[in-house]
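Hi support team,

I submitted a single chain yesterday and got back a structure, but I'm not sure I'm reading the token output correctly. Could someone confirm the output below corresponds to the sequence I sent? I've pasted both exactly as they appear in my results page.

Thanks,
R.
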Amino acid sequence: MDRREFIKAAALAGVSLSTLGCLGTEKTPPVSSTAAPPVATGIASTTSPAYDLTIAQGTDPVSLLERGFKALGGVERYVKKGANVVIKPNFSVPRTPEEAATTNTVMVATLTKMCLDAGAKEVRVIDQPLNSSTPVLCLERTGIKRAVEQAGGKVFTYNGVRDAFRPVTFSGKTLTSFDYVKDVLDADLFINFPILKHHRGAKLTLGMKNLMGLVWDRRYFHSSDLHQGIAELAAFRKPHLTIMDAIRGITDNGPVGPGPIREYGQVIFGTDQVAIDAYAANLFGMKPQDVGYIRIAAEMGIGNIQWEKLKLQKV
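Hi R., thanks for writing in. Yes, this is the structure output for that exact sequence:
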């Protein structure tokens, strides 16, 4: 059985309902950060890519991921042997992949196996479902747990697991101190893997919005300045690579769904969070400047909102 057959079979096999574990209970001092972290030790090469955004076009999830990484120079360019890799998809709601409200399960499992094949020591796939009472249901309905585990990775949800977070500080207007997932802080390679979809509160759920699943108290964002908080969170811990699932997504009633579905047939790769979100917003049919956190992040210097002026390659 080749990789494509294996991953698809794993995704369709269903998932078990076992409750997931998490990190240990060691106590650590607060982490202070006002800028992006240094280059991760798990990245095999730090040479800048020839293109700012790489866009794989089509509908087959395995082919899209493989062609995208081939255009980037191979997954080995990012994964160093022995690296601890953390992948943050969106499986925060109990929807099937066909309902287009969560990151494509087949692609997440494919990426997991690709990283392990490249020599990663461990791949952790993590999220924090929106409702603390539904983590197991999310794992079951999305198929994420079964597919990732059959690919050799581990899946973790952190709802109610206080010891999975570490206190950190940040010199932002909205964010000053908060609790952040230890797995990402300690990862050699951090990959953000969002889905393009509608969001009632933030207009769109994109890459930077997806990072809210890494903090203990998301309610704080909604009770303060949501867009400012999202932009500052993106500045606190920048992913080393962002992969946007824009194969298909809901265009209304997000983030939970169900909702009307639009087919985009694309997966977007890059290291500039703002550029990826700006491109995806345009793909959705919105001006990037009209999505508050994209505009604020660009003003903060996190990335380039003028995606149309960047070098794009489509494969």
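A quick pointer for reading it: The first helix runs from residue 3 to 12. Let us know if anything else looks off.

Best,
Support desk
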